[in-house]
């Protein structure tokens, strides 16, 4: 394999990274590895951000109160915005609206993060290398986790995931430095997007969560002009009378109509069909058992991150502008 060095797309140079991280003070019932804590996840994001020059602007969007140790790290690293969203869907919609409303430029790269991911120290450096490379100029969306690869031999109406994970067996994957960038099919709600595309897609991104189910996957498919729902799924929603209890009918019909609208929206004109590129290997890891990214060093990375946080606490002055 020939590895190409990342090169900027032209006179504009590397994009500026902006980070919007969503957090919730509590926990859910997901199975977690023993080394998981939200404090370590937070510290890993801050550590990765501080490896980038210039240091990215970070906005922490907190749904309700956050434990003091985590809030102290946030205030030392960036801006803290508190809201009372009450749900993952609502906080996500608020985060998108916030990013669109900021006076950022279209060439910026916006990263939306969640609070249960562990970041490699060079994750954002790799992300910016990809976003700046001429070879990836077609891409508007970027994923650092998931391994879900788009089988480009299938059509837009019947898009399928490749059997091989990530860039494995994909001759069209683009190697840049230590990362191979492949055509991603879908990822989670932790992703990067060029701000120009974000502004154009904001209404779509804020609407998709109302479709229910795995709406992060639906977002990725619809934005790329791929059909997000099967015919069977649409029929089940629009004809719930024999399969669902009567009290569920109005909700099912409303969801079905929205899904039909999004399926039509997926047939967007060529100029608005996005391309998502995903990294191999994964640069971040969702810390939930059963969906951990490949590799046996995540526990070690969590320990290193904790040590980094202790050292940073000792040396960092109060405030968001420290070096």
Write a structural description.
By secondary structure, the protein is an alpha/beta fold. The protein folds into two domains: 17-197 and 274-315, Spore Coat Polysaccharide Biosynthesis Protein SpsA, Chain A (Alpha-Beta Complex), CATH 3.90.550; 202-271, no CATH class. Helix content is 34%, strand content 16%. The chain has helices at 38-49, 68-77, 88-101, 123-132, 195-207, 215-223, 231-238, 249-265, 298-315; strands at 17-24, 57-63, 79-83, 109-113, 117-119, 141-143, 174-176, 179-183, 191-194, 276-280, 284-286. α7 runs antiparallel to α8 (249-265). The longest helix is centred in the C-terminal third of the chain and has 18 residues, at 298-315.
Query: What's the total number of strands?
Result: 11
Strand order of the largest sheet: 3-2-1-4-9-6-10-8-7
Our estimate of the beta-strand percent is 15-25%
DSSP summary: helix tally: 9
CATH architecture of the largest domain: Alpha-Beta Complex
CATH topology of the largest domain: Spore Coat Polysaccharide Biosynthesis Protein SpsA, Chain A
pLDDT < 50 runs, ≥5 residues:
1-12, 319-323
Rg over alpha carbons: 20 Å
Structural class estimated from helices and strands: alpha/beta
CATH top level of the largest domain is Alpha Beta
The H-and-E topology, N to C, reads as EHEHEHEEHEEEEHHHHEEH
What is the global morphology? globular
| CA-CA gap between termini | 38 Å
User: How many structural domains?
Assistant: 2
**Helix residue percentage:** 25-40%
Major sheet characteristics: 9 strands, mixed
Overall pLDDT: 88
């Amino acid at each position: 394999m020939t590895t190409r060095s990342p090169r900027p797309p032209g006179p504009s140079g590397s994009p500026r990274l902006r980070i919007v991280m969503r957090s919730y003070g509590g926990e859910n019932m997901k199975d977690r590895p023993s080394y998981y804590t939200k404090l370590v996840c937070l510290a890993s994001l801050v550590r990765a951000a501080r490896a980038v020059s210039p240091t990215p602007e970070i906005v922490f969007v907190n749904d309700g109160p956050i434990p003091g140790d985590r809030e102290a790290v946030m205030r030392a690293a960036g801006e803290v915005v508190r809201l009372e969203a009450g749900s993952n869907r609502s906080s996500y919609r608020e985060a998108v609206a916030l990013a669109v409303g900021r006076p950022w430029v279209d060439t910026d790269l916006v990263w939306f993060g969640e609070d249960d991911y562990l970041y490699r120290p060079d994750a954002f450096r790799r992300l910016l290398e990809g976003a700046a490379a001429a070879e990836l100029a077609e891409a508007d969306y970027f994923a650092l986790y998931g391994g879900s690869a788009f089988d480009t031999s299938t059509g837009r109406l019947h898009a399928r995931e490749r059997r091989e994970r990530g860039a494995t067996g994909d001759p069209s994957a683009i190697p840049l430095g230590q990362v191979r960038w492949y055509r991603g099919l879908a990822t989670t709600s932790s992703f990067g997007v060029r701000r120009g595309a974000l502004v154009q897609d904001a209404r779509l991104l804020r609407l998709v969560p109302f479709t229910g189910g795995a709406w992060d996957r639906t977002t990725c498919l619809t934005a790329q002009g791929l059909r997000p729902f099967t015919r069977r799924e649409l029929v089940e929603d629009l004809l719930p009378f024999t399969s669902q209890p009567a009290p569920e009918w109005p909700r099912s019909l409303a969801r079905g109509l929205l899904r039909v609208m999004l399926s039509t929206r997926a047939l967007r004109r060529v100029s608005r069909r996005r391309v998502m590129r995903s990294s191999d290997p994964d640069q971040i890891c969702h810390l939930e058992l059963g969906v951990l990214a490949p590799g046996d060093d995540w526990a070690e990375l969590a320990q290193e991150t904790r040590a980094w946080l202790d050292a940073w606490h000792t040396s960092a002055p109060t405030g968001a502008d420290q070096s």
